[in-house]
Amino acid sequence: MLHRHPLYWICVTLLLLPVSALRADEYAQARRHLVEVIEQDVRDTSLYLDQKALDPRVMTAIGRVPRHEFMPAAQRQHAYANRPLPIGYGQTISQPYIVALMSDLIKPQAGDRVLEIGTGSGYQAAILAELTGQVYSIEIIEALGKQAAGRLSRLGYDNVTLRIGDGYYGWKEHAPFDAIVVTAAASHVPPPLVAQLKPGGLMVIPVGSRFLTQQLVLIEKGADGQLITRQILPVKFVPLTGEHD
Amino acid sequence: MPSLSIALVSATALAYEVLLMRLFSIIQWHHFAYMMISLALLGYGVSGAFLMLLQRRLLRHFAASYIINLALFGVCSVGCFLIAQHIPFNAEEVLWDARQTVWLLCTYLLLAVPFFFAANAIGLALIHYRARLSRIYAADLLGAGLGSIGILALLFVVLPLQALTVLGLLGICAALLASWELQQTRTAAWLVPLAAALLLMPASWSTLEMSPYKGLSQILLVKDTHIIAERSSPLGLLSVVESPTIPLRHAPGLSLNASTEPPPQLGVFTDGDGLSVISRYNGDRHTLSHLDQLTSALPYHLRPINRALILGAGGGADVLQALYHRAENIDAVELNPQFARLVTTDYADFAGHLYQTPGVTLHIAEARSFAAGSPGDYDLIQVSLLDSFSASASGQYALSENHLYTTEALAEFLKQLAQHGFLSITRWIKLPPRDTLKLFATSVAALRSSGVNDPGQQLILIRGWQTSTLLVKNGAVNAQDIERVKAFCAARSFDAVWYPGITRDESNRYNRLRDAWFHDAAQALLGEQREGFLDDYKFNLRPSSDNQPYFFHFFKWRTLTEVLQLRERGGAPLTDAGYLVLTATLVQAIVASLLLILLPIWIYQRRGSPAKQGVPRSMVMAYFFILGLAFLFIEIAFIQKFLLFLHHPLYAVAVVLSSFLVFSGLGSAWLGRISPGSRNKLLRKAVTGIVMLGTVYLLSLGTLLDHLAALPDVMRILISASLIAPLAFCMGMPFPLGLARLADYAPTLIPWAWAINGCASVISAVLATLLAIHLGFSTVIAAALVLYVLALWVFPAPRKG
Fold first, then answer.
1. pLDDT in tens, A188-216
2. Where would you tag: which of B243, B262, B351, B598 has the fewest CB atoms within 10 A of its CB?
3. Cα–Cα distance measured from residue B469 to residue B485, given in angstroms and rounded to the nearest whole number
4. How large is the C-alpha radius of gyration of chain B?
5. B430 contacts in A (CB within 8 Å)?
6. Is B574 in contact with A237 (Cβ distance < 8 A)?
């Protein structure tokens, strides 16, 4: 280890400070731009969403949560591009537009209790934590879960409780939930999750591959327990020429 | 003359091509594997260009050059794959990440290296022995013919990576054989340690590096999950997975209203993806109640099912569903014997000896051939989710021929139904709707072709949020059926999309889409506006046929601009990657070929070599290019034409490919006896033979094969080989006749012809698939016949004087 005069370190720190400040500022600017991109995408897709804009609280959360903190250093240069990115272990951090849509679809309220199946990077949990009262998140891959827990704690998301394990049976101790977000690949909707959703609650599931979300499935549990799904195409595309043009 | 080593390297190179397809289908996905290997074969074209420029130097040391190239082929065939599999290419990021294109380029440049060395060896031999080149070419074709059968046999015996080592060793064996043939025994001394090094390679170097995004890689990240068995064959690598701590619970399409969960399961992955399961069964039907909560359970609620035919039985989920619903006689058909053995032998106790249950009969057979030869009278024929969702959703199957969902196939299945029986086909829901609707359109076409005037009266279509099930009834759907469909759907929150008399409001009730897309499309496909609808729909929904068996081809060019504009705005899943990959492969192959063909001749001229050769270069280029295209056109189209007749895709590939190569080889060998003066005449005769036989087959092969379909396996194989033999014999002549002409009048152009033929072969394989997708395999054959006639016109004639 090199021993240098304290003055050296002070100089280095002073020199680096503007750089890191600039970096943080760049990220903030990129985040603002991302919000604008998402707002435009939402306007384009309003046909399927039945709304011209998402809940402003959701957009504020997207503009606030530092997405670059949720990905490996090698990917940070793309942190605010509106696209999914690999985070290791064959997993991805979802496209911000999809995260925003999913967060909006569950109509989050400040006091809500939300269950997330598939923590991944923790980004979706952080957005939910900004919007709701308490987030319970379950991750099946141990290494990912530990990384996400550390990250969420470091960023001060104290209202996220994370568990490593099987999401199939939900989290009975904290049920029922106002909303459930399933981001893990599942061959079907586990019956225990349906049971842990409050009457009037909403569950959202992205369908597709790791990088390509084909549709969002929103499950609405009626006051009488009856289940209805809405299948939402997250893109401005109509399959028949001339339709809705 | 080193005929044996030529045959061996040719056999090994062809086997290597097949093996690479296998290996990359495991570690990556089929469609990109197709692109990588197609373009890697341009190594043949590179070799021709290389030899064109360096032939004099290499020929001065022919024996050494020849042996070194063989040895390098052996070493690089193993080494290049082991390096290539570490290239971090991810197919799904191609749309966003420019680096992926670079990784892809690196992969096929690397994989081209072994083909380059193999082609160098064969090309050098063709130039060196130009007086007897028809014999060299014959050895090349005969070897390739044997290689095509050999690799299929080898893949039944060893795992794909072990097969790679075997092929590497065979490459070095070819070099050893060449040392003996060319009496260069001293060189053998350094070949033996090379072979030993391949054998003693550290185990850590030779493990398969599967993409982390494949289903198998993902599930192995789950605590305590591990592979408990692996079975490999040319049909795929089966990996059996056990997950004791966090159980597998695979039940795609399960109703949201279901309250029960699946029993413990073992996962079976094919090539690291496409999960299917073997469920624990103890004979208690009640443990299977979740199987009644799937869209595919519908037919069991419409009438008692006594005789059921399950196509693609795999791990037995559909058989269990039939047992749950008290079907008495179940014929379960599975193509892959290794998969069946997992259930009947290896995990028979776990599966409750499912396939030995009274009333259940397992048949190892190709689904369509079995149905055609079965006694029929089935109450239900069921085909459920034979492909994985991710593969289907990303358009990976667009390049794959599928003979199960063609108009002819559905018409054949309908014939095997009892009165009022049902054909039931379950598919993944894709949005915007694609394959469910194409299946509906195909069923309408099949019913019409069976003489049904009002197909809508015999169809029922339902959907959940994840799967759809189409029922085609042998008879009109009646009021009782409709009441039962309604009750079934209401209890499970499924939507009826179509039954006779359905209203639009009923079709979008539980799983709501922005519009009643499925119902509107079904209505249009049954009505007079059908053609307009098919034209206006942004995906291709036209029924597939045996002549154009591309069920998963949904792409329309006019949608491309819109889809690409939307790729970063949620539109990426709209691209059917398979077709675009195919087109991109063709464009790259054409650009690379132009370079590989034109560049060496340009350099050759700049060096001050004679501007004029004994034959016009334009004719040399046209002739060998046309031959390269035409030969593979016929070969590829005939594999498809014989596929149903031979009842198995592997038989079809092995029998057709080896017959073409071996009999072409014999045709070439026969030329050795022909005097140079009669070449023009002989070419005319060969082309006449090809065109006449080709035309006869084009017009009558289908009918002929239909009549012979009931013969035993051995007879059908012999008949196939006999039908191919005369055509292939004639096809083996034009190439060596052209080379012989060059040997007489422009010998320095022989490697150039080799490059042209190599490039044309790559383009041909891709172009044949594109033509078949759009125009059908019959057109591919017709095009090949026209090309052969053209070849006659451009046969390089010596310059006068």
1. 888 999 999 999 999 999 887 777 777 88
2. B598
3. 12
4. 28
5. 214
6. yes
